């Protein structure tokens, strides 16, 4: 295994010292291959491991009392998975692979050593946790207060902007790799309604699709429609501890 995808992810925000990179690399010493649909963690499991996603995509979700699924988060390579479980003995959410994936599990207690030895990394994890929380709050607000078209637009933009954090080659198009049912489960719509909104945005010239790839033709207009704010840029990092 070469390097640390987690370190690569964090270094998009701030340059890391060699000691910080080595500490993050230790979290990825073990790899576990997960087939599409494979369960990584079930809600209410005893939490002993946390994860870094090295390849593929993973989602977190909960099952509602009526049997419906609410997708909470989609994770991409370089993401720290299971941060919500750091505060609990029992997992508050389930984790499943959306495609063939590679996760790097590490003992939950290894996080203590990382935070003790690398306070700047601890601060970066705090920042990432809060950007995730704010993005989730945005989506929660949109579920109750915006139209179906706005929800779809905002969701596509969020996926697009998160992928661009680590992939400099993305300009205006990206591989969605999500079914319309999965999109619907994330934003509270049926797959039929998601399909209708996507087709409408295509007819309006806002997006186009080809072989699972989505191209955004008018990002500014999509942001207006979705009442969307990119929570993955313009981060205030001036207060971070100095590089060791």
What's the topology here?
Blueprint: H1 5-10, H2 18-26, E1 32-34, E2 39-41, E3 49-55, E4 58-63, E5 69-75, E6 80-81, E7 94-97, E8 101-107, H3 110-117, H4 119-145, H5 148-166, E9 173-175, H6 180-187, H7 191-203, E10 207-210, E11 213-216, H8 219-226
Antiparallel strand pairs: 1-8, 2-7, 3-6, 3-8, 4-5, 4-7, 9-11, 10-11
Helix pairs in contact: 3-4, 4-5, 5-8, 6-7
Q: In one word, what is the shape?
A: globular
What's the gyration radius in Å? 18 Å
Number of strands: 11
Overall number of structural domains:
2
Overall pLDDT score: 94
Strand content: 15-25%
Give me the secondary-structure category: alpha+beta
CATH homologous superfamily assignment of the largest domain: Jelly Rolls
Q: Which descriptors apply to this entry?
A:
244 residues, alpha+beta, Jelly Rolls, Arc Repressor Mutant, subunit A, 2 domains, four-stranded antiparallel sheet, 8 helices, 11 strands, globular
Structural write-up:
There is one protein chain. The chain has 244 residues and is of the alpha+beta class. The protein has two domains: 5-126, Sandwich (Jelly Rolls), CATH 2.60.120; 146-226, Arc Repressor Mutant, subunit A, CATH 1.10.10. Helices cover 40% and strands 20% of the residues. The chain is built from eight helices and eleven strands. The strands form three sheets. Strands 1-8-3-6 form a four-stranded antiparallel beta sheet, with no helix packed on it. It has a four-stranded antiparallel beta sheet with strand order 2-7-4-5. It has a three-stranded antiparallel beta sheet with strand order 9-11-10. Helix 3 packs across helix 4 (119-145), helix 4 (119-145) packs antiparallel against helix 5 (148-166) and helix 6 crosses helix 7. The radius of gyration is 18 Å and the shape is globular. The model has no long low-confidence stretch (mean pLDDT 94).
